[in-house]
Amino acid sequence: MRISSLQIFNTGVSNMQKGQTALAKTQEQISTGKNLNRPSDDPVAAAQILKYRRELAATETYQENITVSQRRLELEELTLQQINNAGDRLNELAIQGNNSTLNNQNRAGIANEAQQIQQFVLGLMNTKDAQGEHLFAGAKGDTQPFVADGQDGFSYAGDTEVRFIQTGPSALIQSTDAGRDIFQVVSGDAQVDLLSTTAPAGFSISVNPASTLGETPEFDTFLEANGKQDLFLTVNAAADTYSLQDSAGVMLSTGSVPAAIAPASTSVVEISPPGLRMDLGVNITALGTDISTTIRPVKPQHTLLTTAQTLIDALKTPITDQASREESGAKLARVIDEIGTSQDSLRQAVTQLGGRLVTLENQSSVNQDYDIFTQTALSNLEDLDYASAIAKFSFQEVALQAAQQTFARVNNLSLFNYL
After folding, report:
1. Closest C-alpha to 337, from 144, 98, 70, 176
2. What percent of the chain has pLDDT over 90?
3. Average pLDDT in the 248-254 region?
4. In what helix (H) or strand (E) does residue 259 lie, and over which residues does it extend?
5. Which of 94, 169, 292, 407 has its CA 20 to 30 A from that of 44?
């Protein structure tokens, strides 16, 4: 095959250019320390590198979420422990205040200390985290959860929702708590709420006191069996009868309503559906109209703050005789029981927080291991092996020099040198 001088020249130049390009690429890799400097170097590897970098960024975010959640939950745990300690002191004061040797002045002094503890607990229940959000407001972090109503009572202004924060690709952890679930756990006196009514003035309904007595109160039994369901009560004025149905339309109770003895008086009728007794106060003669109303039997829940207020009121009420002493003793005994209920809830909440903190620690360890694995995989694709690169550079340099020298020799070949 005949090879022309021009072909030899072009081939030599092309080989030298390829050698220079390869040498320049290796030199760039050595100077940057990266095996890939642009996607075109290896499109498949470049796509994998982008994927690893996204995963590393996500893992970093997960770790930041864990740090924030740990800080918040640890503060919450400490706050609950302080409230529990305050409950211990209130319990001691209730026992101390029930001592028959104390005079009214001594009891008032104990009440003042209880009042200070109450304000301390109120502040703890409204604790904020480092971001300025209330710990126990549920999802309404900007709202102060517990507010005094000005009448020695306290209301919950937060909500029952909680927020979850992502701590791993498929891991979520509860990062907030609703104060209602933790603190508002003490059952108050049974009552019946009137949700809607067509009855005029003179109509009333209440829980029969007998239903709240005994070790297994009928009212509690009813609520456990039926929940806080709405009941529908109707009174037929013409027939002097009543009927009570549940939310499913099942008849719970029917009966007669006797006319009042005098137009200004009110008849009291005991309504007795299964497991529940209520007093219906209505003057049929005075009303002269049918009644239709929706009612809901409930036992309102309150917090340690209300229990502390009961303690304060009981201690500030003067003891004047044996009857008042017995009444005060009954109130203080109830306070002690309610404090125990509150502390049981606090201990349960602390246990749950401990479980969440352990989960966060475990997830953090998993994230760290995954981060190391991903960094290693990314380094294998992206980072340069200097020993191999330098050896490669030396070889390419020698090859380029040989190509240049042979090109010069071949380029000088000519028949005219022999004429």
Report:
1. 98
2. 38
3. 81
4. none
5. 169
Tell me how far apart the alpha carbons of residues 205 and 197 are, in angstroms, rounded to a whole number: 11
Q: Is 213 exposed, middle or buried (0-12, 13-18, 19+ CB in 10 A)?
A: exposed
Pick from 39-43, 163-167, 238-242 the range whose average pLDDT is largest.
163-167
The DSSP bridge partners found for residue 253 are 244
Please tell me which residue, 212 or 40, carries the higher pLDDT value.
40
Contact yes or no for 290/225 (Cβ under 8 A): no
Q: Are 278 and 270 spatial neighbours (Cβ–Cβ below 8 Å)?
A: yes
Coil/strand/helix, residue 383: strand
Classify the phi-psi angles of 202: left when phi > 0, otherwise alpha if psi is within -120 to 50, otherwise beta: left
**CA neighbor of 138 nearest in space, from 160, 116, 115:** 160
pLDDT-based confidence at 264, cuts 50/70/90?
very low
- Residue where the block lists tokens 């369901």: 229
Judged by phi (left if over 0) then psi (alpha if -120 to 50, else beta), residue 293 lies in beta
Query: Are 125 and 145 contacting, i.e. CB atoms less than 8 angstroms apart?
Result: yes
> Does residue 216 carry a pLDDT above 60?
no
Residue 188 near residue 302 (C-beta atoms within 8 A): yes
Distance CA 227, CA 345 (A): 20
Q: What is the DSSP string of 37-102?
A: SSGGG-HHHHHHHHHHHHHHHHHHHHHHHHHHHHHHHHHHHHHHHHHHHHHHHHHHHHHHHT-TT-
